[in-house]
Amino acid sequence: MKIAIFPGDGIGPEVIAEAKRVLEALSLPQLSLFEGDVGGIAYRRHGMPLPQETLEMARAADAALFGAVGDPACDELPREHRPEQAILSLRSELGLFANLRPAAGYPGLEDMSSLKPEVARGIDLLVVRELNGDVYFGEKGERAGEGGREGWDAMSYNETEVRRIAHIGFQAAQKRRKRLTSVDKANVLETSRIWRETVIEVAREYPDVQLDHMYVDNAAMQMVRSPGQFDVILTGNLFGDILSDQASACVGSIGLLASASLGERRTEFGTFGLYEPIHGSAPDIAGEGKANPVAAILSLAMLLRHSLGRESDAGRIERAVAQVVASDVRGADLGGTASTGEIGDAVLGAL
Amino acid sequence: MKIAIFPGDGIGPEVIAEAKRVLEALSLPQLSLFEGDVGGIAYRRHGMPLPQETLEMARAADAALFGAVGDPACDELPREHRPEQAILSLRSELGLFANLRPAAGYPGLEDMSSLKPEVARGIDLLVVRELNGDVYFGEKGERAGEGGREGWDAMSYNETEVRRIAHIGFQAAQKRRKRLTSVDKANVLETSRIWRETVIEVAREYPDVQLDHMYVDNAAMQMVRSPGQFDVILTGNLFGDILSDQASACVGSIGLLASASLGERRTEFGTFGLYEPIHGSAPDIAGEGKANPVAAILSLAMLLRHSLGRESDAGRIERAVAQVVASDVRGADLGGTASTGEIGDAVLGAL
Ligand SMILES: CC(C)[C@H](C(=O)O)[C@@H](O)C(=O)O
Ligand SMILES: CC(C)[C@H](C(=O)O)[C@@H](O)C(=O)O
């Protein structure tokens, strides 16, 4: 089993170090780890945020564990050199079209949310976000016109793109509460019209899943009013970016949330995927041992489940984390004083 | 003073009727009211959601008061015939490029929000949304390709478009707490890069306003975590659609929120504008006298302020509404039993 590890910038290396300790403690057979540079650190060392070598490393691996990218020192660089470009390029180069972002209220942590505890407690949803298309990867540029300089970006989805992410969404719903909410802006966008028509077509293959459609503005409203109504949210790249961050905020403890980005490449043990915490590189606290490594450790659990077929190890990690979260070992993000390493120790202890 | 009144569909006519009673109670000099059809009712009567006659009525008026459009019976119609098209066409035909959506926690109503009371209480923001551009009004269509049918929409902003809405935003901030947050997705979109560069340029003319920039995903997160941090949010059409609905939900009492859409046309008394409640046509409760008319009445107050230069009448209405909201006269949306007419009576009584 080959795992590529990309710690990245800011608190990325700190949280990934703890996830690595957990991984090593599992003593998996024939495990090889490879470490590569991405983001601001890669730009400084190699002149680009995603060096070819890093990309090849991911291509050769069964799965990749990613920390975070983002570096204020790179803010003035042109977009193609900025750290965030690394994650966008990895997603497109590796064909990672399906982003899974579970968000659930953690028992005992409801008071961390700015939502009322009874509302936060009810959250148990999965955002399935398309990750290879939409206005993210359409043609884009600047042109001159009567109104001065104009920036433009082409948004689009075709049936093939929608179908493959819709299948992922419906299959996920089948394993959950069998409800899927497709989010679009079909009252305004042609992209959304094709999206909606294709989702309706795919839904016929999943008669056991209840499908409904919501405009994105209404979804953003419902996510605040009654997030407990959602099971699987299926949506495009741009709306998924917004709604999944909003959902994380509703849960209230972003230091605990993990994500998976999957493509079509099968490995010996499952599907190749890239796994990363929802949180960013948090440059303001980098190097201080204050970051919560739980999101990185839970990303590792998703990796074991989806890419290595090791459901039981994934479950073991998740149970250990739940135990630590319920204990008084809390990081600064949850109002406690435990350091990154102490939280890692506690998870290892509970394992 | 000529006011065009467009009650529209669902609860639109019911809430507008109460706003009209309030307007009549003010006994404005030389007031002429004109009433026109928009939305589903216009489609049924005239075969189109925005008849030419309605548009001409708006063009001839100093201001327009709008109820709501949306009618489930029209769901299967092609987009250009659907009720929502009426509001999109009015915005573009009348050049209403500036949408102002204030959202503030109402004293005594904090418990209506799903946010914790101390969080909801802190909300006092104004979304300034561009309303004539972005992916809403770019070219769009369907084409066939290798991936099957493809829907596409062109997103763009030019400097002229960004400048004029930015001025509105900064001027509004000057009258408020002097903070402006510009929301974009400049790490991905060229449209956003021009947006951000132009906002920075316009900001030089408003050195007393503190400007910051936020990516839309982060803004959606911050709106849940600490909405009290925002004063003016300046953003494009699509992000503004999402964030303003999210902000309304955070406040918790959407039946109380009003909006103004302004253009460049000056009238004898101010700027022509279209005023409407944030809430929709709510077909499920239409005709039952259960709708809260406060948002429509507050929309009238905005109309008096921005289009008719009658600040003191606007303030009078707002004070009367505040008094009613603080009393025990509450509609079903606020957990009470008062009917649409009873709430109207109470506002008239307090006037
Ligand atoms: C860094 C940025 C380009 C990225 C995105 O918009 O997809 C991030 O917000 C995310 O959600 O992973
Ligand atoms: C009805 C719809 C087209 C409209 C929009 O998206 O602008 C509505 O959501 C709004 O915000 O006024």
UniProtKB/TrEMBL annotation, chains A, B:
Does the keyword Hydrolase belong to this entry? no
Pathway where this protein functions: Amino-acid biosynthesis; L-leucine biosynthesis; L-leucine from 3-methyl-2-oxobutanoate: step 3/4
Q: Where is the signal peptide?
A: none
Q: Name one GO molecular function term.
A: NAD binding
Question: A GO biological process this protein is involved in?
Answer: L-leucine biosynthetic process
Which cofactors does this gene product need? Mn(2+); Mg(2+)
GO cellular component assignments: cytosol
Its subcellular locations are:
Cytoplasm
The record lists substrate as bound by 91, 101, 129, 217
Return the annotated site residues (Important for catalysis): 136, 185
Q: Which reaction does it catalyse?
A: (2R,3S)-3-isopropylmalate + NAD(+) = 4-methyl-2-oxopentanoate + CO2 + NADH
Alphabetically list the UniProt keywords.
Amino-acid biosynthesis, Branched-chain amino acid biosynthesis, Cytoplasm, Leucine biosynthesis, Magnesium, Manganese, Metal-binding, NAD, Oxidoreductase
EC numbers for this chain: 1.1.1.85
Q: Cofactor note, please? A: Binds 1 Mg(2+) or Mn(2+) ion per subunit.
Q: Which InterPro entries match?
A: IsoCit/isopropylmalate_DH_CS, IsoPropMal-DH-like_dom, Isopropylmalate_DH
User: What family does this belong to?
Assistant: Belongs to the isocitrate and isopropylmalate dehydrogenases family. LeuB type 1 subfamily.
Which named protein is this?
Answer: 3-isopropylmalate dehydrogenase
| Organism annotation | Qipengyuania vulgaris
The gene coding this protein? leuB
